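Dear colleagues,

As part of the handover before I leave the project, I'm documenting each prediction I ran so the next person doesn't have to rerun anything. This entry is a single chain, and its sequence is reproduced below.
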Amino acid sequence: MLRILFLFLMIMISFFPILAEEKPTPPGPPKEGYYIVTYKNYGVNLEINVNGYDVRDGSSNEDSSGQADINYWILPEKNKIKIRLTERKGKQKENNGLSKEAEVKLFIGQKGQFPDEGILLQSFQWPTSTKDSLGEWTELEFNPTFIPPSQLWKQAEIITLTKEKESSIVEFAKEFTKILNTKDTKKILFWIQFRAKDTSEVRYYPYIEVDELKSIAGMTKAIGSNWKLEVRNIKFTLLCNNQILSVTNQKGEPIITSKKGASIPLYLSWIGGQWVIVR
């Protein structure tokens, strides 16, 4: 009897490590990746705003579906996604009895994944998950599980707009337009270097100056010296905890354009006592 009991104990001891090894370790939150917003809307217009940046501006009167990488706009702390649905305008208002619906989702995806293969962080579905009326803003908040690599948030100061600051922005835009029209690739890169380096970091690909110069050379060859600046009715919009300033016309369009239809958005931050192109 004692021998049988001893053998039973030995068998249990030998099985214990095997049983312990079979316990799955729950995966931790990802330490890098891409914050991606996916959306679709039918029968209603859809606006999506992330920390002040318009992913969709709601002007389209058509059904749509798509996705947007928002790593550039993710803040180190609390982040906000604002969503608004509005009625269609004109003839598009009639949808022949088809259902009106919209969906917005926030995922964390990895390189090589489809967005819906990532981790779902937030979801908005209308009218099933929310009863908000058309025309009302819905706000979703989230704290990032990781912060996309960026030097911007460490360096950019909180912007307080004044008449002096607004005037200095116009002068900055004038000087930048002149630099673009020189077609001097090194001078142009000097003006956009922070943006080039930081957005490379945010997207997890290396910054290679030679490649940046080639890209600028291609642009200048295609556009030439045709850049012009429209300074009437400028609109200043603060984004991302007031650390980024968007400079547009009243319609939200870029103020630096070319005769060939190209345009350059202006996203500026106040760093080290001067304006810097950051996005």
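The chain has a mean pLDDT of 89. The chain has two domains: 34-142, 153-277.

All the best with the project,
I.
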